[in-house]
Amino acid sequence: MGASPWKTWPMSLTDMAIRRAKTRDKPYKLYDELGLFLVISPSGSRLWRMKFRHGGSEKKLSFGAYPQLSLRDARKMRDDARELLADGKDPSLEKQREKLGASALAENTFTSIANEYCRKRRRDGDRAWAPATAARCEYLLGLLGNSIGKMPIHEIEPIDALAAIRKIEKRGKLESARRTLQLAGAVFRYAVATARLRSDPTRDLRGALTTPTVTHYGAVTDAGEVGDLLRAIDGYEGLGMTKWALQLAPHVFVRPGELRHARWDEIDLDAALWTIPAEKMKMRKPHHVPLSRQSIAILQEILSITGSSGYVFPSMRSRTRPMSENTLNAALRRLGYASNEMTGHGFRAMASTLLNESGKWSPDAIERSLAHGDSDRVRAAYHRGAHWKERVAMAQWWSDLLDSLRNGVTILPFLGAVAG
Question: Which are the catalytic amino acids?
Answer without folding.
Answer: 255, 282, 345, 348, 372, 382
